[in-house]
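Example record used in the benchmark description.
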Amino acid sequence: MCLAIPSQIIAIENSMATIDVEGVRRSASLMLLEDAAVGDYVIVHAGFAIQKLDEAAAAESIKLLREAAVLMDDLEAKKG
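Model output (structure tokens):
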């Protein structure tokens, strides 16, 4: 299973972006997006930015992922 987490582009050099998710930075190729810019939010799969998102959609996705992580932690704690 693959989980795509919205990431913000913080720098671009040639066709590579530096992306950030809550302080974690990675590189991603922009070869599949024509109009990506610094500040944009993107979905990255297998090292490639594959789709742009608006900031509200990115924030909502991250919120839902945090809530899911809390639920998983609670389930693990109940298993003991």
